[in-house]
């Protein structure tokens, strides 16, 4: 049964839907004592996991049972924020008599970070450079687990819930076929409520700026946040590397706030962003090599630059650039300390999400985005062959070929870490390249993506 669960998950192309995109079939072959179900949804403004739980808690619990059995865990623990009372009630109603438990989290950021979730629910600290299975835990997101339940019933990943929030007339959450143009999803919420807007895909803390509204949604896009182009969440991301370095060199006062609030530092990892910024400031990168390679320990949560730093310096950007450069040079993470304990003051340095939202200038958008059951029907989808960690999928269809929703269009290359990709609509393959497969409806309708009342809310994949 264990092998067949992992095989079904691999066949269905399930990847970490919370943003990581790690192929779930690989996690499903791990060995663990505890399966932790991540329902924290800690990125501000995102609602897709919560909306999924409201209507389909039983699918998530079913997926949790399957994943628990696949990794040989004795327990599955669903972790939800206690403020999401309706979702908590839905999960409580769906829990079986035994084998799956519920635990409640405080409303802090970043409660959904895997390492923090493991610590907050089990008291175990994942070692530096490690992963949760190193301490006997496998973590899976709630959307991922609903897709695991679907996979075992033979349904591949072809759609997911996506929240649209921000400067839109009617914030909502939709079930969206993978590969739908982002602009068409955003348009379903009505006209923008600001003149010059930019879309962030994935959330305001860790998401990316969408370069063009024709970009397709992916399996890992939980939300699309529409913000004014001059909003700080946008301008911090669009600042050039040269500007980021110039500000760090000129302004850092070594106040330590970035380190004192760094969630990974507070967990006991040797990550001190103020020391890395100082190495950049004084050009001592060679001498401070440990604080350069500590970039490998950064989860890029954004706490240091979007909340902690009083001078709008961007330690995360600096650490991310260093990490990329180290990888380019083939340098591996030398930080491997184990047996760690969290910093004693950690409990007093948790940042309430409401305070974070206020500091980010997002309070006016922090409202509900209820599930909208209209069926989203794009006339054309573009399926990226790399929506996951690992190697891009290898295209297995030809131009002009007819496909049905769920047909395989991208296969995992032999011997590689990767994930399969499936057609998300019925149609004809319009184009195939090394990076994507485009599919058009057989009888295109005018007007782009349409939406009609239908069974969009009946599916949970
Ligand atoms: S982004 Fe900043 S706060 Fe978050 S883990 Fe990295 S250094 Fe720490
Ligand atoms: S919080 Fe800002 S000013 Fe303070 S040490 Fe960190 S980067 Fe420098």
Give a verbal description of the structure:
This protein folds into three domains: 2-152, Rossmann fold (3-Layer(aba) Sandwich), CATH 3.40.50.11540; 237-359, no CATH class; 380-444, OB fold (Dihydrolipoamide Acetyltransferase, E2P), CATH 2.40.50. It has 16 helices and 20 strands. By secondary structure, it is of the alpha+beta class. The chain has helices at 2-12, 24-27, 48-70, 85-94, 114-122, 142-152, 182-187, 232-238, 241-251, 257-260, 263-266, 273-281, 289-293, 303-308, 315-328, 353-359; strands spanning 34-39, 75-81, 100-105, 108-109, 137-141, 159-166, 172-177, 197-201, 208-209, 223-228, 351-352, 374-377, 380-384, 394-395, 402-403, 408-411, 421-422, 427-432, 436-440, 450-453. One iron/sulfur cluster (SF4) is lined by residues 252-258, 274, 277, 308-309, 311, 313, 315.
CATH architecture of the largest domain: 3-Layer(aba) Sandwich
Report helical residue fraction. 25-40%
Report the sheet-strand fraction.
Answer: 15-25%
Shape: globular
Q: What's the arrangement of strands in the largest beta sheet?
A: 7-6-10-8-9
Main sheet characteristics: 5 strands, mixed
Number of domains: 3
Number of helices: 16
* CATH fold-level assignment of the largest domain: Rossmann fold
The CATH first-level class of the largest domain comes to Alpha Beta
Quote the distance from N terminus to C terminus. 21 Å
């Amino acid at each position: 049964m264990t092998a067949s669960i992992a095989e079904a998950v691999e066949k269905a192309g399930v990847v970490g839907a919370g943003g990581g995109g790690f192929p779930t079939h690989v996690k499903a072959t791990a060995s663990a004592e505890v399966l932790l179900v991540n329902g924290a949804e800690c990125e501000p403004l995102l609602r897709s996991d919560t909306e999924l739980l409201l209507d389909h808690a039983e699918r998530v619990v079913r997926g949790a049972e399957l994943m628990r059995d696949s990794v040989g865990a004795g327990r599955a623990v669903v972790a939800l924020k206690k403020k999401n009372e309706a979702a908590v009630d839905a999960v409580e109603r769906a829990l079986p008599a035994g084998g799956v438990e519920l635990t409640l989290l405080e409303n802090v950021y970043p409660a959904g970070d895997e390492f923090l979730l493991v610590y907050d629910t089990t008291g175990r600290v994942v070692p530096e450079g490690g992963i949760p299975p190193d301490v006997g835990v496998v973590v899976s997101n709630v959307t991922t687990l609903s897709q695991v339940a679907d996979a075992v019933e033979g349904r591949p990943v072809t759609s997911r819930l996506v929240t649209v929030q921000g400067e839109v007339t009617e914030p909502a959450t939709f079930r969206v076929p993978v590969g739908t143009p982002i602009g068409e999803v955003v348009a379903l919420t009505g006209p923008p409520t600001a003149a010059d807007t930019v879309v962030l895909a994935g959330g305001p803390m860790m998401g990316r700026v969408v370069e063009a509204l024709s970009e397709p949604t992916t399996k890992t896009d939980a939300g699309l946040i529409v913000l004014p182009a001059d909003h700080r969440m946008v301008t911090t991301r669009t600042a050039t590397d040269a500007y980021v370095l110039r500000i760090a060199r000129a302004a850092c006062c070594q106040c330590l706030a970035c380190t004192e609030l760094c969630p990974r530092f507070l967990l006991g990892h040797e990550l001190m962003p103020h020391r890395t910024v100082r190495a950049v400031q004084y050009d001592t990168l060679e001498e401070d090599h440990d604080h350069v390679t500590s970039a490998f320990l950064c989860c890029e949560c954004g706490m240091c630059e979007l909340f902690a730093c009083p001078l709008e310096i961007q330690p995360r950007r600096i650490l991310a650039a260093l990490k990329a450069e180290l990888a380019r040079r083939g340098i591996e993470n030398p930080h491997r300390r184990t047996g760690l304990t969290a910093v004693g003051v950690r409990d007093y340095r948790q940042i309430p999400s409401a305070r974070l939202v206020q500091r980010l200038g997002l309070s006016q958008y922090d409202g509900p985005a209820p599930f909208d059951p209209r069926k989203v029907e794009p006339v054309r989808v573009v399926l990226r062959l790399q929506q996951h960690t690992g190697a891009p999928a290898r295209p297995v269809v030809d131009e002009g070929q007819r496909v049905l929703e769920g047909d395989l269009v991208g296969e995992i290359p032999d011997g590689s870490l990767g994930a399969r990709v499936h057609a998300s609509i019925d149609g004809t393959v319009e184009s195939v390249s090394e990076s994507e497969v485009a599919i058009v409806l057989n009888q295109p309708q005018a007007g782009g993506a349409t939406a009609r009342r239908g069974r969009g809310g009946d599916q949970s994949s």
